[in-house]
Amino acid sequence: MIRGLYSSGWSMIANGRKMDVIANNIANVNTNGFKKDSVVFESFSDVLVRSVNGQRSISNPQGILGTMQFSSDVGEIFTRQNQGQLNKTDKMTDFAISDNGNSFFTILAPEVSNGQEIQELYTRDGAFTINQQNYLTTGEGYLVMGQNGPIQLADNEFIVNEEGMIIQGENVVDTLLIRCFEDASTLRKIGTNTLAETEQSQEQQFNGKVLQGFLEQSNVNVISEMVDMITVLRAYEANQKILQIQDDALGKAVNEVGMIR
Fold first, then answer.
1. Which class for 63: exposed (0-12), middle (13-18), buried (19 or more C-beta within 10 A)?
2. pTM metric for this prediction
């Protein structure tokens, strides 16, 4: 019975964490380039059960009764990097990357993570602006990186071709620094809709296209997330009721069955 309490309790905790992830996905359904997170459950490791005062034998000198599992828990929060829908905006400073979802714009944003200063961050949100110094920046003010460093324009009129080359008049100002990774799932989320590379991240050649006047939408499917939310809520409520039933039964066993008459 105590094992049942643990199982139901841990299941409620796990479903609560999944609900938080789903809520965050829904909250970012209109965030440009946002990638949805999915929860992967895994079972607890087997717990070895031993007999404390039971009989031991030659074949079982430690009095091992067997193993059991309490419940499942959140093993991983996996980010799905598939490309979202590309919407045409016709705005000169809006950009989107058309590929398999493994390529990112590079931005310069000093951040401190685990005591280390990170200079390069990556994003699929191409809703850029031009600041007062004519630098191309993100909506948060982070500098957008080109192959020669932060991109500074001579004026506000420019075009960008599919290779990411920034052209003003007859001059090539710079080329957008696009980082492409073999496996985008090795990146970790940090900051506002940005990613940072890890030791497992491996770069590869960029084979996609840069589209000016387009923005990539979130890859969150609202209907699917709402269905998942209802499913998680029902699972949480079921475990809650089971826990209450077991608690009532345990109370009766202690207060009524165990009474000495």
1. middle
2. 0.77
